[in-house]
Specification:
- With 407 residues, the protein is an alpha/beta fold.
- It has a domain at 86-112 and 212-399: Rossmann fold (3-Layer(aba) Sandwich), CATH 3.40.50.1100.
- Helix content is 36%, strand content 15%.
- It has twelve helices and 13 strands.
- Strands 4-5-13-10-11-12 form a six-stranded mixed beta sheet, with helices on both faces. A four-stranded parallel beta sheet has the order 8-7-6-9, with helices on both faces. The protein has a three-stranded antiparallel beta sheet with strand order 2-1-3, with no helix packed on it.
- The termini are far apart.
Amino acid sequence: MAETGSLLTSLECRACCASVDPSRLVGTCPTCGHALLAQYDLARLDARAWVGSWPARAPSLWRYRELLPVQHSSQIVSLGEGYSPVLPLNDVPAAPGVRVRLKDDGGLPTGSFKARGMSVAVSRARELGVRAVYVPSAGNAGVALSAYGARAGLPVRVYLPERTPAPMKVGCRTYGAQVVEVPGTLREAGAAARAAEAAQRSFDLSTLREPYRVEGKKTMGLEIFEQLRDEEFPSAIVYPTGGGTGLVGMHKAFEELRALGLSERRPRLYAVQPEGCAPVVRALRDGATAVTPWEDPSTIAPGLLVPAPFSSERVLEAVRASGGGGVTVRDREIVDAMAELARRFGVSASPEGAATYAALGSLVRTGAVHTDDTVLLYNTGTGLPFSLPELERLVAGASEGASPEAP
């Protein structure tokens, strides 16, 4: 067993069933190019004793270290990420009678849930001997990698769409990362990054293009189980979906908990996307096994401007296996939700996180959410980098015929 207690055994590809030695530095499946997922020897874990040990451990995602991939504690790169609060939202106007909770990752290091994946991925990359890293990002992932790369002593390059909010560009540079601005969306930033880095010896930490960011996101599900298992475990989780790694991670967490005999409960997962860029919701609606790229994508929510998420098969699989679905919201509704969350509940939500609150009314109207449900909204980031008046201006301009762009 590893010094951390990690029970990591292999990396597996659900597309072609290949198994890869986890001691090997690898990105995607070497056989078919799809995403690899970490596997653990769950039979060796005393599940009840494991759960009983949590209260004595530090309140960070590393409290679940047996089901995380890092083998040696000296390699852990941490800024105190994880264990974010779950807040009750009482008397939500759009969901009368529904018990609404919000898990708020806006207070994590670098201001978003991206800290989870980057802490685990950077730790494992350093453990496997990586000397430089890069990522194409809509903003938050780039800021998180810049911070964790700095703490790990690794050079970082971040490829950002030109219209990424200025505070996120500043954040990356403040942590010492090299920022490359690319015209277009995250799709173009990804293509530019991989072309530019092909001759370099740096490692790609893109969503689902390496195996370990999803393990960090898995801790969202483990925390939800720990925080709510003795109270009101959610019937449904409403999640803002760009690349969709969080959906894959939470699904993986609930499946591992089930395999350990700790919980048979599996919340319905609902993917929320903006009307101007909804490839996952469209694929769910059409019964497709993978997304097709969204044409002319546009939204004020930069993290949701992902026209063709990589390894979308795994995202769709996670939603369908849970019995959930997908829903779209308008940019106008996102802005209104940001304002209502702030003024009614004191929650600073990013446009992405606010999209989950905006989706509640639709989920109630269509019968996806019932009055006896407990629903957990996932706020993935703080709203502080965003100017609400500027977003209002963008939405107003869009209603007059202009395409909205992230500020």
